Amino acid sequence: MPAPGGYRRQQFLTEEEKANAPKVTPQLLKRILSYLAPYWLQFIAVFVAILVSSVVGLLPPPIITGRIVDQALVGDDLTLLVRLLFTALGAMLASQLVGVLENYINSWISERIIYDMKNEMYLSV
């Protein structure tokens, strides 16, 4: 039966594809993690970057916004307002820079794993 608008709803996987899908087993997970093992230090750096980016991106804005409204605007303190605005800008930039670092390290790890897998494949032929 067609979906509203006259279009048929498309399924992503057929029943055959679902039946032949690889099963996630402990052996498969061990094999996947074996490719990540040489890069565990970089993986930890990505995890730390995610945490830092989240904390810097989430915690300061509400605190800074509250201080802008409660102290700088109500108190007519232009110096404090400018300082808080620059602090908010700095927190946003720090969060974005950490995000860029995280993406760079993620890409570096994935490229190295692909390189290792290709070398392993070509050496086994």
Task: Walk me through what this model shows.
This protein has 125 residues and is mainly α. The radius of gyration is 25 Å and the shape is elongated. The model has no long low-confidence stretch (mean pLDDT 85). It has a domain at 46-123. The chain contains five helices and no strands. Helix 3 (40-58) packs antiparallel against helix 5. Its main location: membrane. It is found in: Cell membrane. It is a multi-pass membrane protein. One of its GO terms (molecular function) is ATP binding. The chain crosses the membrane at residues 39-59, 80-101.
- Please give the radius of gyration in angstroms: 25 Å
Strand content: under 5%
Uncertain segments of ≥5 residues (pLDDT<50)?
none
SS-derived structural category: mainly alpha
Number of strands: 0
Oligomer: single chain
What string gives the helices and strands in order?
HHHHH
Summarize the structure.
With 125 residues, this protein is mostly helical. It has helices at residues 15-19, 26-36, 40-58, 60-73, 78-123.
Q: What's the layout of helices and strands?
A:
Layout: H1 15-19, H2 26-36, H3 40-58, H4 60-73, H5 78-123
Helix pairs in contact: 3-5, 4-5
Protein name: ATP-binding cassette, subfamily B
InterPro entries: ABC1_TM_dom (IPR011527), ABC1_TM_sf (IPR036640)
GO molecular function: ATP binding
